[in-house]
């Protein structure tokens, strides 16, 4: 009897284990089935195809072939991905390309995915980078549609370079810098400090600053490239990007406020763009009264931002406080047909600063272009922007940033350009932005 009871207990235990295993399997099947179908050894089972917004074929899963034109292949490599890329649209969209569904499996056939990208714009952006490493991205800040997204260095997936792993020119080539990179923001961060000053400093209109080229902060000195001038208003300080003025503001506001306003901008969050996750930015709170706190308000010290979240922040200012998460997928259809295979929802949004704070930032960013960077390079487009020249140390040239948006309902475009070791932000990165925006607005 005792033995029988023991056997019953063992049987019951085994039954319970089997039931638990089945439940676990079913949960995992529903959650990960799409990935299992999409992943086969080292290749993705992605029978569908990827097209750009104008119907240009970027990748055909049936034949495993990429775009016909080499420049297009190179300018879309990071989006499409090849077998060396851990994250790319081929990997995150594999279940959609294979047409996988937890009930029917893949029996209903594969899907074609039409991206929002204009591959011709990507080619222009890559060419404008002129072989430099960096990022160029443009998106519609109302709909979230990404029009242009280039990460450099790149290569032709039909002919990968033999020295890709040894040649320093290809460092980090398998990363899409737009999603995975974090960089010192340089003076683009002054927009965060400005937002905090607008909301926390009641007498900002009376703020005046005289720049002699170097400003004593705590036991250190914050320097500017030259003496910016006397009795400058906050608008003038942003337009000439005066480090001294912003270090003084940072000390007055304090590290907690700067951290809070960077968080409110979304710059410390990770965004999910059609299954691709962005790297998080970060802010280290330096000691009150220290020169490092001053530099942190200038976008140096240990500040880091990700290009995608910075782009989304620009869109949020343009949109008067409502930031729209970028999107890469336009439509999805049953392969070889125009029959829609999925419903596309509305854009994901989150709130940044108040509409009045954003309007003030917008006016200041417009003034930056008109009074400092030069409107002529942007033709008739009312561009609002902030440049950044981020020191990276080690005797290397600084990173050049140019980020902003077109304040025009007919061309609701936000942009970010980063040229690694590109030198002066408004010149190097501003020139790239001007070329890409001209083509984006004309298209
Ligand atoms: Zn200055």
Write a structural description.
By secondary structure, the protein is of the alpha+beta class. The protein has a domain at 186-327 and 347-442: Beta-lactamase, CATH 3.40.710.10. It has helices at 2-38, 70-80, 89-92, 94-98, 119-129, 177-180, 190-200, 234-239, 243-253, 255-264, 291-296, 307-318, 355-373, 425-442, and strands spanning 39-40, 43-44, 49-51, 57-60, 65-66, 111-115, 134-140, 146-152, 209-211, 214-217, 220-223, 229-232, 272-273, 276-277, 322-324, 329-334, 349-351, 383-390, 399-406, 413-419. The strands form 7 sheets. The protein has a 5-stranded mixed sheet. A 5-stranded antiparallel sheet has the order 8-7-20-19-18, with helices on both faces. The chain has a two-stranded antiparallel ribbon with strand order 1-2. The longest helix is centred in the N-terminal third of the chain and has 37 residues, at 2-38. It is globular, with a radius of gyration of 25 Å. The N and C termini lie far apart (84 Å). Bound molecules: zinc ion. The site of zinc ion (ZN) has 6 residues, from helix 9.
């Amino acid at each position: 009897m005792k033995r029988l009871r023991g056997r019953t207990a063992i049987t019951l235990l085994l039954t319970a284990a089997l039931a638990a295993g089945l439940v676990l399997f079913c949960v995992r099947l529903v959650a990960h089935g799409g990935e299992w179908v999409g992943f086969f050894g080292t290749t993705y089972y992605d029978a569908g195809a990827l097209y750009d917004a104008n119907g240009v074929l970027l990748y055909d899963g049936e034949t495993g072939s990429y775009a016909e034109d080499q420049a297009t292949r190179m300018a879309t490599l990071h989006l499409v991905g090849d077998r060396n890329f851990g994250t790319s649209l081929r990997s995150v969209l594999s279940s959609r390309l294979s047409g996988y569904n937890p009930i029917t499996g893949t029996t209903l056939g594969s899907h074609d995915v039409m991206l929002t990208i204009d591959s011709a714009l990507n080619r222009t952006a890559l060419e404008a980078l002129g072989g430099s490493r960096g990022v160029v991205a443009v998106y519609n800040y109302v709909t979230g549609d990404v029009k242009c997204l280039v990460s450099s260095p790149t290569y032709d997936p039909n002919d990968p370079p033999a020295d890709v792993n040894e040649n320093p020119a290809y460092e980090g080539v398998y990363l899409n810098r737009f999603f995975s990179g974090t960089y010192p923001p340089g003076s683009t961060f002054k927009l965060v400090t400005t937002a905090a000053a607008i909301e926390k400093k009641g007498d900002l209109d009376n703020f005046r600053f005289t720049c002699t080229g170097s400003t004593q902060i705590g036991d250190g000195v914050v320097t500017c490239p030259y003496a910016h001038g006397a009795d400058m208003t906050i608008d003038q300080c942003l337009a000439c990007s005066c480090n001294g003025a912003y270090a003084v503001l940072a000390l007055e506001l304090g590290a907690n406020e700067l951290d809070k306003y960077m968080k409110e901008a979304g710059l410390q969050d990770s965004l999910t763009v059609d299954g691709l996750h962005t790297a998080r930015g970060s802010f280290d709170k330096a000691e009150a009264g220290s020169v490092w706190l001053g530099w942190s308000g200038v976008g140096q010290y240990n500040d880091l931002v990700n290009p995608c979240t910075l782009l989304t922040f620009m869109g949020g200012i343009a949109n008067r406080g409502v930031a729209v998460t970028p999107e890469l997928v336009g439509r999805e259809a049953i392969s070889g047909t125009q029959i829609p295979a999925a419903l596309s929802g509305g854009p994901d949004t989150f709130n940044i600063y108040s509409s009045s704070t954003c309007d003030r930032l917008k006016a200041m960013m417009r003034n930056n272009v008109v009074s400092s960077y030069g409107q002529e390079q942007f033709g008739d487009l009312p561009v609002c922007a902030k440049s950044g020249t981020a020191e990276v140390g080690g005797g290397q040239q600084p990173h050049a940033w140019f980020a902003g948006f077109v304040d025009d309902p007919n061309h609701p475009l936000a942009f970010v350009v980063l040229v690694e070791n590109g030198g002066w932000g408004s010149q190097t990165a501003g020139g790239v932005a001007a070329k890409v925006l001209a083509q984006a607005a004309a298209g």
